[in-house]
Amino acid sequence: MSVWSRVAGQPKVVAELDAAARAAGSSKPADGAMTHAWLITGPPGSGRSIAAESFAAALVCEQAGCGICKECREALAGTHPDVDLERSTTFSYSKQSATELVVKAAGAPTRARYRILVVEDADRMTESAANALLKAIEEPTAGTVWILCAPSGEDLLPTIRSRTRHVALRIPDPSDVAAALMMEGVDAGMAGFAAAASQGHIGRARGLANSAEVRSRRTNVLKVPSRLNSLEAAYAIAHELKQAADADAKQRSKDLDDAETEELLDAYGQGATGVSAAKVRNHARGALSQLAKNQQQRAARSTRDALDRYFVDLMGWYRDVFVLQVGAGGALINPDLAAELEQVAGRQDAAGTVARIDALSAARAQLSGNVPPLVVCEALMVQLLHPVPPQDTLVGLAE
Question: Considering the chain, what percentage of its residues have pLDDT values greater than 70?
Fold first, then answer.
Protein backbone atom coordinates (compact mmCIF):
# COMPACT_ATOMS: atom_id res chain seq x y z
CA MET A 1 0.00 0.00 0.00
CA SER A 2 1.18 3.53 -0.71
CA VAL A 3 1.66 6.10 2.04
CA TRP A 4 -1.62 7.70 0.94
CA SER A 5 -3.67 4.69 2.02
CA ARG A 6 -3.37 6.05 5.58
CA VAL A 7 -5.26 9.24 4.65
CA ALA A 8 -8.99 8.53 4.93
CA GLY A 9 -11.61 10.34 2.89
CA GLN A 10 -9.45 13.14 1.42
CA PRO A 11 -9.17 12.37 -2.33
CA LYS A 12 -8.59 15.98 -3.49
CA VAL A 13 -5.89 16.63 -0.89
CA VAL A 14 -4.18 13.33 -1.65
CA ALA A 15 -4.21 14.11 -5.38
CA GLU A 16 -2.62 17.52 -4.80
CA LEU A 17 0.08 16.29 -2.43
CA ASP A 18 0.81 13.24 -4.57
CA ALA A 19 1.25 15.46 -7.63
CA ALA A 20 3.64 17.68 -5.67
CA ALA A 21 5.70 14.70 -4.49
CA ARG A 22 5.94 13.32 -8.02
CA ALA A 23 6.90 16.73 -9.38
CA ALA A 24 9.60 17.04 -6.70
CA GLY A 25 11.21 13.84 -7.90
CA SER A 26 10.90 14.60 -11.59
CA SER A 27 13.68 15.95 -13.77
CA LYS A 28 11.05 18.14 -15.44
CA PRO A 29 8.64 19.14 -12.65
CA ALA A 30 5.34 20.79 -13.54
CA ASP A 31 5.32 24.50 -12.84
CA GLY A 32 3.91 25.33 -9.41
CA ALA A 33 3.41 21.71 -8.39
CA MET A 34 5.95 21.85 -5.56
CA THR A 35 6.88 24.59 -3.09
CA HIS A 36 9.06 24.89 0.01
CA ALA A 37 6.31 25.67 2.56
CA TRP A 38 2.92 24.00 3.07
CA LEU A 39 0.03 24.56 5.45
CA ILE A 40 -2.28 21.60 6.04
CA THR A 41 -5.44 22.50 7.93
CA GLY A 42 -8.49 20.60 9.09
CA PRO A 43 -10.65 20.10 12.19
CA PRO A 44 -9.55 17.64 14.89
CA GLY A 45 -9.91 14.12 13.56
CA SER A 46 -9.59 15.07 9.91
CA GLY A 47 -6.14 13.47 9.75
CA ARG A 48 -4.04 16.54 9.04
CA SER A 49 -1.00 15.12 10.87
CA ILE A 50 -1.33 11.83 9.02
CA ALA A 51 -1.53 13.69 5.71
CA ALA A 52 1.57 15.70 6.61
CA GLU A 53 3.56 12.62 7.62
CA SER A 54 2.48 10.80 4.46
CA PHE A 55 3.54 13.77 2.34
CA ALA A 56 6.94 13.86 4.06
CA ALA A 57 7.39 10.14 3.37
CA ALA A 58 6.45 10.63 -0.28
CA LEU A 59 9.02 13.41 -0.63
CA VAL A 60 11.90 11.21 0.57
CA CYS A 61 10.76 8.13 -1.36
CA GLU A 62 12.27 7.42 -4.78
CA GLN A 63 8.81 6.31 -5.95
CA ALA A 64 6.90 9.22 -4.41
CA GLY A 65 5.40 7.25 -1.55
CA CYS A 66 5.42 3.52 -2.24
CA GLY A 67 4.85 2.81 1.45
CA ILE A 68 7.14 -0.21 1.63
CA CYS A 69 10.69 1.04 1.04
CA LYS A 70 13.12 1.90 3.83
CA GLU A 71 12.67 5.64 3.26
CA CYS A 72 8.88 5.45 3.61
CA ARG A 73 8.98 3.18 6.65
CA GLU A 74 11.51 5.32 8.48
CA ALA A 75 9.74 8.58 7.64
CA LEU A 76 6.41 7.29 8.95
CA ALA A 77 8.06 5.88 12.07
CA GLY A 78 9.78 9.18 12.81
CA THR A 79 13.28 7.76 12.46
CA HIS A 80 14.32 9.11 9.05
CA PRO A 81 17.35 11.42 9.37
CA ASP A 82 15.90 13.93 6.91
CA VAL A 83 12.38 14.10 8.36
CA ASP A 84 11.67 15.85 11.66
CA LEU A 85 8.20 15.30 13.12
CA GLU A 86 7.77 18.11 15.65
CA ARG A 87 4.95 17.67 18.16
CA SER A 88 4.27 20.27 20.83
CA THR A 89 4.36 18.65 24.27
CA THR A 90 3.39 21.87 26.06
CA PHE A 91 0.60 24.41 25.60
CA SER A 92 2.65 26.47 23.15
CA TYR A 93 5.84 26.59 21.14
CA SER A 94 8.28 29.07 22.70
CA LYS A 95 10.66 31.29 20.78
CA GLN A 96 13.46 28.92 21.82
CA SER A 97 11.56 25.95 20.36
CA ALA A 98 11.05 27.80 17.08
CA THR A 99 14.71 28.81 16.96
CA GLU A 100 15.72 25.16 17.39
CA LEU A 101 13.46 24.27 14.45
CA VAL A 102 15.08 26.96 12.32
CA VAL A 103 18.54 25.58 13.16
CA LYS A 104 17.41 22.09 12.15
CA ALA A 105 16.03 23.47 8.90
CA ALA A 106 19.40 24.96 8.04
CA GLY A 107 21.02 21.53 7.92
CA ALA A 108 21.56 19.81 4.58
CA PRO A 109 19.71 16.54 3.90
CA THR A 110 21.78 13.41 4.42
CA ARG A 111 20.03 10.83 2.24
CA ALA A 112 17.05 12.39 0.54
CA ARG A 113 16.70 15.37 -1.76
CA TYR A 114 14.95 17.36 0.99
CA ARG A 115 15.25 18.20 4.66
CA ILE A 116 11.62 18.15 5.86
CA LEU A 117 10.14 19.63 9.01
CA VAL A 118 6.58 18.64 9.90
CA VAL A 119 5.28 21.00 12.61
CA GLU A 120 2.09 19.76 14.26
CA ASP A 121 -0.06 22.25 16.18
CA ALA A 122 1.62 25.21 14.48
CA ASP A 123 -1.26 27.30 15.82
CA ARG A 124 0.24 26.90 19.31
CA MET A 125 3.20 29.16 18.52
CA THR A 126 3.63 32.31 20.57
CA GLU A 127 3.99 35.53 18.58
CA SER A 128 7.77 35.58 19.09
CA ALA A 129 8.02 31.93 18.03
CA ALA A 130 5.93 32.58 14.92
CA ASN A 131 8.11 35.55 13.95
CA ALA A 132 11.24 33.41 14.27
CA LEU A 133 9.67 30.78 12.02
CA LEU A 134 8.51 33.41 9.54
CA LYS A 135 12.06 34.51 8.77
CA ALA A 136 13.07 30.92 7.96
CA ILE A 137 10.08 30.51 5.63
CA GLU A 138 10.70 33.86 3.96
CA GLU A 139 14.36 33.03 3.32
CA PRO A 140 14.30 29.23 2.89
CA THR A 141 17.41 27.12 2.89
CA ALA A 142 17.80 25.22 -0.36
CA GLY A 143 16.45 21.70 -0.01
CA THR A 144 14.28 22.48 3.03
CA VAL A 145 10.52 21.85 3.09
CA TRP A 146 8.23 23.10 5.87
CA ILE A 147 4.90 21.34 6.45
CA LEU A 148 2.80 23.17 9.05
CA CYS A 149 -0.38 21.71 10.54
CA ALA A 150 -3.16 23.71 12.20
CA PRO A 151 -6.95 23.59 12.64
CA SER A 152 -7.37 26.56 10.26
CA GLY A 153 -5.32 29.13 8.43
CA GLU A 154 -6.77 31.86 10.65
CA ASP A 155 -4.88 30.36 13.59
CA LEU A 156 -1.53 31.46 12.13
CA LEU A 157 0.02 34.84 11.47
CA PRO A 158 -1.23 36.26 8.15
CA THR A 159 2.40 36.67 7.07
CA ILE A 160 3.08 32.97 7.56
CA ARG A 161 -0.20 32.01 5.91
CA SER A 162 0.60 34.09 2.85
CA ARG A 163 3.96 32.37 2.37
CA THR A 164 2.64 28.81 2.43
CA ARG A 165 0.62 26.71 0.04
CA HIS A 166 -2.64 25.80 1.76
CA VAL A 167 -4.50 22.50 1.54
CA ALA A 168 -7.64 21.99 3.63
CA LEU A 169 -8.97 18.69 4.95
CA ARG A 170 -12.50 17.90 6.08
CA ILE A 171 -13.87 15.45 8.61
CA PRO A 172 -13.98 12.18 6.69
CA ASP A 173 -17.24 10.33 6.22
CA PRO A 174 -17.60 7.39 8.64
CA SER A 175 -17.72 5.04 5.65
CA ASP A 176 -14.26 6.26 4.60
CA VAL A 177 -12.94 5.75 8.13
CA ALA A 178 -14.43 2.26 8.26
CA ALA A 179 -12.86 1.42 4.90
CA ALA A 180 -9.46 2.61 6.13
CA LEU A 181 -9.75 0.46 9.24
CA MET A 182 -10.70 -2.61 7.20
CA MET A 183 -7.63 -2.08 5.01
CA GLU A 184 -5.62 -2.30 8.24
CA GLY A 185 -7.17 -5.67 9.10
CA VAL A 186 -10.11 -4.64 11.31
CA ASP A 187 -13.25 -6.70 10.68
CA ALA A 188 -16.21 -4.94 9.11
CA GLY A 189 -18.44 -4.94 12.21
CA MET A 190 -15.82 -3.43 14.49
CA ALA A 191 -14.73 -0.98 11.79
CA GLY A 192 -18.30 0.29 11.37
CA PHE A 193 -18.79 0.66 15.11
CA ALA A 194 -15.48 2.48 15.63
CA ALA A 195 -16.05 4.82 12.68
CA ALA A 196 -19.48 5.86 13.95
CA ALA A 197 -18.51 6.14 17.62
CA SER A 198 -15.42 8.21 16.79
CA GLN A 199 -17.56 10.69 14.80
CA GLY A 200 -15.14 10.43 11.89
CA HIS A 201 -11.99 10.98 13.97
CA ILE A 202 -9.58 8.52 12.37
CA GLY A 203 -7.14 8.38 15.30
CA ARG A 204 -9.93 7.83 17.81
CA ALA A 205 -11.47 5.20 15.52
CA ARG A 206 -8.20 3.26 15.47
CA GLY A 207 -8.08 3.34 19.25
CA LEU A 208 -11.65 2.06 19.59
CA ALA A 209 -11.11 -0.66 16.99
CA ASN A 210 -7.85 -1.96 18.43
CA SER A 211 -8.11 -1.48 22.20
CA ALA A 212 -10.62 -3.04 24.58
CA GLU A 213 -9.41 -0.56 27.20
CA VAL A 214 -10.32 2.41 25.00
CA ARG A 215 -13.77 0.91 24.40
CA SER A 216 -14.19 0.39 28.14
CA ARG A 217 -13.32 4.03 28.85
CA ARG A 218 -15.91 5.13 26.30
CA THR A 219 -18.53 2.95 27.98
CA ASN A 220 -17.75 4.49 31.38
CA VAL A 221 -17.88 8.04 30.02
CA LEU A 222 -21.25 7.45 28.35
CA LYS A 223 -22.67 6.34 31.72
CA VAL A 224 -22.14 9.86 33.08
CA PRO A 225 -25.55 11.30 32.00
CA SER A 226 -27.47 8.56 33.81
CA ARG A 227 -25.42 9.12 36.99
CA LEU A 228 -25.99 12.89 37.14
CA ASN A 229 -28.79 13.01 39.70
CA SER A 230 -27.47 15.44 42.35
CA LEU A 231 -24.84 18.11 42.95
CA GLU A 232 -22.91 15.65 45.07
CA ALA A 233 -22.84 13.20 42.18
CA ALA A 234 -21.84 15.96 39.75
CA TYR A 235 -18.74 16.88 41.77
CA ALA A 236 -17.85 13.23 42.37
CA ILE A 237 -18.06 12.48 38.64
CA ALA A 238 -15.93 15.54 37.85
CA HIS A 239 -13.18 14.21 40.11
CA GLU A 240 -13.50 10.72 38.58
CA LEU A 241 -13.09 12.11 35.06
CA LYS A 242 -10.03 14.12 36.06
CA GLN A 243 -8.47 11.08 37.75
CA ALA A 244 -9.22 8.88 34.74
CA ALA A 245 -7.63 11.45 32.43
CA ASP A 246 -4.55 11.64 34.66
CA ALA A 247 -4.24 7.86 34.65
CA ASP A 248 -4.72 7.76 30.88
CA ALA A 249 -2.00 10.38 30.40
CA LYS A 250 0.38 8.62 32.77
CA GLN A 251 -0.07 5.27 31.07
CA ARG A 252 0.53 6.70 27.60
CA SER A 253 3.61 8.68 28.64
CA LYS A 254 5.33 6.21 30.98
CA ASP A 255 7.30 4.29 28.36
CA LEU A 256 8.33 7.50 26.60
CA ASP A 257 9.36 9.15 29.88
CA ASP A 258 11.47 6.14 30.87
CA ALA A 259 13.13 5.96 27.45
CA GLU A 260 13.96 9.67 27.50
CA THR A 261 15.48 9.40 30.98
CA GLU A 262 17.61 6.40 30.03
CA GLU A 263 18.78 8.11 26.84
CA LEU A 264 19.81 11.19 28.82
CA LEU A 265 21.70 9.16 31.42
CA ASP A 266 23.46 7.21 28.67
CA ALA A 267 24.60 10.51 27.18
CA TYR A 268 26.15 11.39 30.54
CA GLY A 269 28.10 8.13 30.74
CA GLN A 270 25.72 5.65 32.29
CA GLY A 271 27.15 2.14 32.00
CA ALA A 272 30.70 3.32 31.33
CA THR A 273 33.47 1.42 33.12
CA GLY A 274 34.40 3.01 36.43
CA VAL A 275 31.55 5.53 36.41
CA SER A 276 29.04 5.07 39.24
CA ALA A 277 25.32 5.63 38.76
CA ALA A 278 25.41 8.26 41.52
CA LYS A 279 28.13 10.21 39.72
CA VAL A 280 26.22 10.10 36.44
CA ARG A 281 23.05 11.38 38.08
CA ASN A 282 24.98 14.11 39.87
CA HIS A 283 26.44 15.37 36.59
CA ALA A 284 23.07 15.08 34.87
CA ARG A 285 21.15 16.73 37.69
CA GLY A 286 20.33 19.94 35.80
CA ALA A 287 19.41 18.13 32.60
CA LEU A 288 17.27 15.63 34.52
CA SER A 289 15.45 18.49 36.24
CA GLN A 290 14.65 20.14 32.91
CA LEU A 291 13.58 16.81 31.42
CA ALA A 292 11.25 16.18 34.36
CA LYS A 293 9.72 19.62 33.86
CA ASN A 294 9.16 18.94 30.16
CA GLN A 295 7.60 15.58 30.95
CA GLN A 296 5.26 17.15 33.50
CA GLN A 297 4.15 19.71 30.93
CA ARG A 298 3.55 16.94 28.42
CA ALA A 299 1.51 14.99 30.98
CA ALA A 300 -0.57 18.08 31.76
CA ARG A 301 -1.39 18.56 28.11
CA SER A 302 -2.09 14.84 27.71
CA THR A 303 -4.59 15.06 30.58
CA ARG A 304 -6.41 17.87 28.79
CA ASP A 305 -6.39 15.87 25.56
CA ALA A 306 -7.91 12.89 27.35
CA LEU A 307 -10.65 15.05 28.89
CA ASP A 308 -11.37 16.54 25.48
CA ARG A 309 -11.94 13.03 24.11
CA TYR A 310 -14.36 12.32 26.96
CA PHE A 311 -16.26 15.54 26.21
CA VAL A 312 -16.46 14.66 22.51
CA ASP A 313 -17.99 11.29 23.43
CA LEU A 314 -20.56 13.05 25.63
CA MET A 315 -21.35 15.55 22.86
CA GLY A 316 -22.07 12.61 20.58
CA TRP A 317 -24.37 11.09 23.20
CA TYR A 318 -26.38 14.30 23.62
CA ARG A 319 -26.42 14.84 19.86
CA ASP A 320 -28.09 11.44 19.51
CA VAL A 321 -30.66 12.42 22.14
CA PHE A 322 -31.42 15.62 20.24
CA VAL A 323 -31.79 13.77 16.92
CA LEU A 324 -34.39 11.51 18.53
CA GLN A 325 -36.17 14.41 20.24
CA VAL A 326 -36.69 16.41 17.05
CA GLY A 327 -37.22 13.40 14.80
CA ALA A 328 -34.41 14.37 12.45
CA GLY A 329 -33.98 10.78 11.35
CA GLY A 330 -30.18 10.93 11.13
CA ALA A 331 -27.96 7.96 11.87
CA LEU A 332 -27.00 7.64 15.52
CA ILE A 333 -23.40 8.00 16.62
CA ASN A 334 -24.06 5.44 19.35
CA PRO A 335 -26.50 2.90 17.87
CA ASP A 336 -25.43 0.38 20.51
CA LEU A 337 -27.14 2.62 23.10
CA ALA A 338 -30.31 3.28 21.09
CA ALA A 339 -32.75 1.98 23.74
CA GLU A 340 -31.28 4.14 26.49
CA LEU A 341 -31.11 7.18 24.22
CA GLU A 342 -34.78 6.85 23.27
CA GLN A 343 -35.77 6.73 26.96
CA VAL A 344 -33.80 9.88 27.73
CA ALA A 345 -35.15 11.65 24.65
CA GLY A 346 -38.70 10.92 25.81
CA ARG A 347 -38.32 12.36 29.29
CA GLN A 348 -36.11 15.41 28.64
CA ASP A 349 -36.74 18.53 26.57
CA ALA A 350 -34.80 19.47 23.42
CA ALA A 351 -33.87 22.94 24.73
CA GLY A 352 -32.11 21.36 27.67
CA THR A 353 -30.24 19.03 25.35
CA VAL A 354 -29.05 21.96 23.22
CA ALA A 355 -27.86 23.72 26.38
CA ARG A 356 -25.89 20.65 27.42
CA ILE A 357 -24.22 20.42 24.01
CA ASP A 358 -23.33 24.12 24.25
CA ALA A 359 -21.87 23.57 27.72
CA LEU A 360 -19.68 20.75 26.40
CA SER A 361 -18.50 22.91 23.53
CA ALA A 362 -17.58 25.71 25.95
CA ALA A 363 -15.77 23.25 28.23
CA ARG A 364 -13.65 22.06 25.31
CA ALA A 365 -12.66 25.64 24.58
CA GLN A 366 -11.72 26.16 28.23
CA LEU A 367 -9.47 23.10 28.13
CA SER A 368 -7.41 24.71 25.39
CA GLY A 369 -6.84 27.72 27.64
CA ASN A 370 -5.45 28.04 31.14
CA VAL A 371 -8.51 27.01 33.14
CA PRO A 372 -7.58 24.18 35.56
CA PRO A 373 -8.99 20.89 34.23
CA LEU A 374 -10.74 19.99 37.48
CA VAL A 375 -12.51 23.36 37.53
CA VAL A 376 -13.62 22.77 33.92
CA CYS A 377 -14.98 19.34 34.84
CA GLU A 378 -16.82 20.56 37.94
CA ALA A 379 -18.47 23.46 36.14
CA LEU A 380 -19.43 21.22 33.23
CA MET A 381 -21.04 18.52 35.36
CA VAL A 382 -23.15 21.14 37.15
CA GLN A 383 -24.26 22.55 33.79
CA LEU A 384 -25.14 19.08 32.51
CA LEU A 385 -27.17 18.49 35.67
CA HIS A 386 -28.95 21.86 35.55
CA PRO A 387 -28.81 23.19 31.96
CA VAL A 388 -29.87 26.76 31.31
CA PRO A 389 -31.01 27.09 27.69
CA PRO A 390 -30.38 30.48 26.04
CA GLN A 391 -33.57 32.50 25.60
CA ASP A 392 -33.30 32.51 21.81
CA THR A 393 -33.05 28.72 21.80
CA LEU A 394 -36.25 28.46 23.83
CA VAL A 395 -38.07 30.84 21.50
CA GLY A 396 -36.84 29.04 18.39
CA LEU A 397 -37.94 25.63 19.67
CA ALA A 398 -41.31 27.02 20.72
CA GLU A 399 -41.90 28.33 17.21
Answer: 95
